[in-house]
Here is the input.
Amino acid sequence: MSGASPLPPAFAAALRDYERHLRAERGLSAHTLRAYLGDIADLFEYAVRVGAADVSDLDVHVVREWLAGQHARGLSRATLARRTAAVRTYTRHAQRTGLLERDPGPLLGTPRQDRALPKVLRQEEAAAVLDGIRPKRAEPAELRSAGAALRDRAVLELLYATGVRVSELCGLDVDDVDQERRTVRVFGKGAKERVVPMGVPAARAIEDWLRRGRPHLAAERSGPALFLGTRGGRLHPTTARRIVHTRVAAANAPDIGPHGVRHSAATHLLEGGADLRSVQELLGHASLRTTQLYTHVSAERLKQAYRQAHPRA
Here is the structure.
C-alpha cells in the first residue's frame, strides 16, 4: 500500500472484497498478493484524487491516466506491465461482481518488456558448485553444522535437478519425495501440482540429508517440512537464496541465485537435446513462450562458441 490517506468506505470495501477473492480463488503467492493489492490501492487513491465517487467511476480514461503517471515517475516496463495485469485482473472481477458495468481492462495496452537473457552457469561451472559440497563425517559437537552442509548439498542438487522455484523447494514436505521412482511432487503457482523427475545425485543427496542431516536440525516446530533452517523450522526462501549464493561463490562461479540455477537447469536440458514441451512441463510454465526464452540462451552460447572456435567466424 502507498501509505496515503485512508480510502473512502466504498473503495475500502471493494479492496477488502478483492483481497478475499484473491486469497480464496487465485492461489497467489504472498508476494504477488501484496503486489496486486498495492497496485489496486494505488489506482483507487488516484481515482479518488480525480473525483471518482466509487468503483463504478473507474473507466479506461482514469486507468490510462494513472498508468501514464506511473510511466512519468520512471517505473520500469516490467513494473508497468505487472500493474497493467493487476488492473485487468481487478476490473474483470469488478465487472463479474457488478461493481463495473463495463470492463476497461481489454482496452489497455501492455508495455513491451525488455527480455534480458537469463544469467546461467556453464555445465562445468554447475558441476564445480555441486561437487564442491562434500560434507565430511562429523564429531558429535559438529553434527548441526554437518547437518546444514548436507542440507545445502541437497538443496542445490534438487534445484539443479528439477528446476523448481525457490518457493516451491521451501514448500516441499518429506512425503513429496518418492525415492523409489526418483520424483518430486511440486505445488507451483496457483497451487498447480506437477510431478518432476530427479537424477541419482539429487536422490542420494536427499537421502543423505534425511538420514544423517535432518535429524540433527529437527525440532518440535519442524512438522513435515523437507528442508529445515538451523532452528528447526521450515527453510525460508531467504535462507535458501543465501545458501545458493554462498556455495556458488565458494566454487568461484558467476554469482547467481536459485532462479539462476533454474535457468541453468533449463538451458542445460535444451543443450542436451530435451524438447521444449518437456522443459515447459518440468518448469511448470503456463505458456510455452516463457520456456522459449531458453532457446535464445542456448543459441547465443552457440554463437559465442562459434566466434571463439571457427577460423572464419
The first strand starts at residue 177 and ends at 178.
